[in-house]
Design goal:
With about 325 residues, the chain is mainly β. Helix content is about 5%, strand content about 45%. The strands form 5 sheets. Strands 1-2-3-12-13-14 form a 6-stranded antiparallel β-sheet.
Length: about 325
């Protein structure tokens, strides 16, 4: 299934901003070298895009060609059986990518399956949650090193954190953003770099979609980490907007009247993906080619009358 490329761009933008802000734009068009230099504290690495605050190897293992990285979260799934779902063997250095199934870059006896995007392994006597690294269907050919990198863009209000796969052992925070700089030639970069930005949303939610057609989509709601105070829920309701003359405008319903929704509540699975099939033909008909936005409310529910509501948005394209 092909994920809409617009969504990947939005996730990148959201990861660089405060939780509910989407005001950041695309970096590009700057001139000059991308030289790096070390600050007085000998730890902060400064570059053209901002400061690298931290870089460290990241624990990873490989299961059936899928990479899983140490999320830093400790599993609450106790007690549990002692039977492993698969074995792991340390075959590469701690900063290298385990490229074959069953390989790891740390000492681990095995793993247990958890959710559709997580597995769990014992690290220092604790069951640690390992999250699937999203390759966006791209091959890992030529990539060798893996790091957790933290930094802050020039003018940024929050730190950016990412899991980085690279051809070069000396990859930096700046190198991750170099492809966005039009004046940096391919030959001046430190080889190929791939990354998964870590979600900074307060509820750990990300929306994206597969199988987008003029009739509907498969909406995927990923929840990972964060600390909602209650149970995350959503309803059936959603609304569509379209871009007209550089402004968002509501998509008109077939009847011209506001939509009426049932009052069902759908639970959002923790550290997993909740999937909803959306067919908007009865409400909006078939959508014409264009740029659209889906808006949907989510609730952090603690008890009757005690909850918080936030609206999440996801842009998509009908070709």
């Amino acid at each position: 299934m092909k994920r809409n490329l617009i969504i990947s761009l939005l996730l990148l933008c959201l990861s660089l901003t405060a939780c509910n802000s989407t005001s950041i734009g695309i970096i590009g068009g700057a001139d000059g070298p991308t030289a790096m230099f070390v600050g007085e504290n000998k730890e902060t690495l400064k570059g053209q895009f901002g400061k690298q605050l931290e870089k460290r190897p990241i624990r990873m293992f490989n299961v059936d060609g899928e990479l899983y990285y140490d999320s830093g979260l400790i599993s609450e799934n106790v007690p549990r059986c002692g039977t492993m779902d698969g074995a792991l063997e340390k075959t590469v250095k701690e900063n290298e990518i385990p490229l074959k199934s069953g390989e790891a870059n740390f000492e681990a006896g095995g793993y247990q399956n958890a959710t559709s995007i997580t597995k769990e392994a014992i690290v220092d006597g604790k069951w640690v949650i390992f999250k699937k690294y999203d390759t966006y269907s791209r091959a890992l050919d030529g990539l060798k090193y893996c790091y957790h990198i933290k930094g802050r863009l020039n003018g940024g209000v929050v730190d950016s954190e990412m899991i980085v796969l690279s051809e070069d052992e000396d990859v930096t925070f700046d190198d991750v953003y170099a492809p966005l700089l039009s004046s940096v030639k391919l030959g001046d970069r430190k080889g190929r770099v791939e990354q998964n930005f870590l979600n900074a949303d307060k509820w750990g939610l990300i929306l994206y979609a597969d199988d987008i057609t003029p009739n509907g989509m498969t909406l995927k709601i990923e929840q990972f980490g964060a600390k909602p105070s209650g149970e995350l829920q959503t309803g059936a309701a959603y609304y569509l907007e379209t871009m007209i003359d550089d402004e968002w405008q509501e998509v008109k319903t077939i009847t011209g009247e506001p939509l009426v929704w049932n009052s069902l509540a759908y639970m959002i699975k923790k550290n997993d993906i909740t999937q909803m099939n959306i067919d908007w033909r009865y409400a909006y008909g078939q959508l014409k080619p264009g740029y659209y936005r889906l808006k949907k409310e989510f609730m952090d529910f603690r008890s009757a009358g005690d909850y918080d509501i936030e609206t999440y948005e996801m842009d998509f394209v009908i070709e």
